[in-house]
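Notes from the 1:1 (GR / supervisor)

We went over the backlog. Supervisor wanted to see one worked example end to end before approving the batch request, so GR pasted a single chain during the call. The sequence is below; no edits were made to it. Supervisor asked that the structure be written out right there so they could see what the output format looks like.
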Amino acid sequence: MANFYVYILTNKPKGVLYVGMTNELERRIADHKTKQVKGFTYKYNVDKLVYFEEFESYDEAFTREQRMKKWNRDWKVKLIEEKNPDWKDLSANWN
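Structure output shown during the call:
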Protein backbone atom coordinates (compact mmCIF):
# COMPACT_ATOMS: atom_id res chain seq x y z
CA MET A 1 0.00 0.00 0.00
CA ALA A 2 1.34 3.42 -0.93
CA ASN A 3 1.90 5.98 1.75
CA PHE A 4 1.16 9.67 1.32
CA TYR A 5 2.85 12.62 2.95
CA VAL A 6 1.97 16.19 3.81
CA TYR A 7 5.06 18.30 4.28
CA ILE A 8 6.20 21.81 5.09
CA LEU A 9 9.23 23.40 3.47
CA THR A 10 10.99 26.65 4.29
CA ASN A 11 13.86 28.69 2.89
CA LYS A 12 15.37 29.42 6.33
CA PRO A 13 14.33 29.08 9.99
CA LYS A 14 11.09 31.00 10.49
CA GLY A 15 11.16 32.00 6.81
CA VAL A 16 8.72 31.44 3.96
CA LEU A 17 6.49 28.36 4.44
CA TYR A 18 5.14 26.00 1.80
CA VAL A 19 2.72 23.11 2.40
CA GLY A 20 2.68 20.25 -0.10
CA MET A 21 1.61 16.64 -0.54
CA THR A 22 3.22 13.65 -2.26
CA ASN A 23 3.35 9.86 -2.31
CA GLU A 24 7.15 9.88 -2.78
CA LEU A 25 8.59 12.17 -0.13
CA GLU A 26 12.30 11.69 -0.84
CA ARG A 27 11.89 12.18 -4.60
CA ARG A 28 9.65 15.22 -4.14
CA ILE A 29 12.06 16.91 -1.73
CA ALA A 30 14.93 16.16 -4.13
CA ASP A 31 12.88 17.85 -6.87
CA HIS A 32 12.55 20.95 -4.69
CA LYS A 33 16.26 20.95 -3.82
CA THR A 34 17.34 20.64 -7.45
CA LYS A 35 14.84 23.32 -8.51
CA GLN A 36 12.84 20.93 -10.70
CA VAL A 37 9.63 22.41 -9.28
CA LYS A 38 9.00 25.78 -10.92
CA GLY A 39 6.68 28.23 -9.20
CA PHE A 40 6.46 29.32 -5.58
CA THR A 41 9.20 27.08 -4.12
CA TYR A 42 11.55 27.91 -6.98
CA LYS A 43 10.91 31.64 -6.74
CA TYR A 44 11.49 31.81 -2.97
CA ASN A 45 14.21 29.12 -2.74
CA VAL A 46 12.03 26.99 -0.47
CA ASP A 47 13.80 23.62 -0.18
CA LYS A 48 14.32 22.73 3.48
CA LEU A 49 12.02 20.06 4.89
CA VAL A 50 11.03 21.10 8.41
CA TYR A 51 7.91 18.98 8.98
CA PHE A 52 6.01 16.03 7.51
CA GLU A 53 3.18 13.66 8.35
CA GLU A 54 2.45 10.24 6.86
CA PHE A 55 -0.98 8.94 5.83
CA GLU A 56 -2.22 5.62 4.48
CA SER A 57 -4.66 7.09 2.00
CA TYR A 58 -4.63 9.82 -0.61
CA ASP A 59 -7.91 11.21 0.71
CA GLU A 60 -6.57 11.64 4.25
CA ALA A 61 -3.42 13.37 3.02
CA PHE A 62 -5.28 15.59 0.58
CA THR A 63 -7.75 16.70 3.25
CA ARG A 64 -4.94 17.45 5.71
CA GLU A 65 -2.97 19.40 3.09
CA GLN A 66 -5.98 21.52 2.15
CA ARG A 67 -6.72 22.30 5.79
CA MET A 68 -3.10 23.19 6.57
CA LYS A 69 -2.91 25.50 3.55
CA LYS A 70 -5.75 27.51 5.09
CA TRP A 71 -4.10 27.77 8.51
CA ASN A 72 -2.57 31.02 9.62
CA ARG A 73 1.19 31.20 9.83
CA ASP A 74 1.31 30.99 13.65
CA TRP A 75 -0.45 27.60 13.62
CA LYS A 76 2.04 26.23 11.09
CA VAL A 77 5.00 27.56 13.08
CA LYS A 78 3.63 25.97 16.27
CA LEU A 79 3.20 22.63 14.49
CA ILE A 80 6.79 22.74 13.18
CA GLU A 81 8.26 23.77 16.52
CA GLU A 82 6.46 21.01 18.44
CA LYS A 83 8.41 18.36 16.45
CA ASN A 84 11.38 20.33 15.12
CA PRO A 85 12.15 23.25 17.46
CA ASP A 86 15.49 24.01 15.80
CA TRP A 87 14.00 24.11 12.29
CA LYS A 88 16.53 21.52 11.08
CA ASP A 89 16.31 20.33 7.49
CA LEU A 90 14.92 16.82 8.07
CA SER A 91 16.12 15.73 4.65
CA ALA A 92 19.71 16.97 5.09
CA ASN A 93 21.17 13.45 5.44
CA TRP A 94 19.12 11.76 2.72
CA ASN A 95 21.22 10.26 -0.09
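Supervisor's comment: Strands lie at 4-10, 17-22, 48-55.
Batch request approved.
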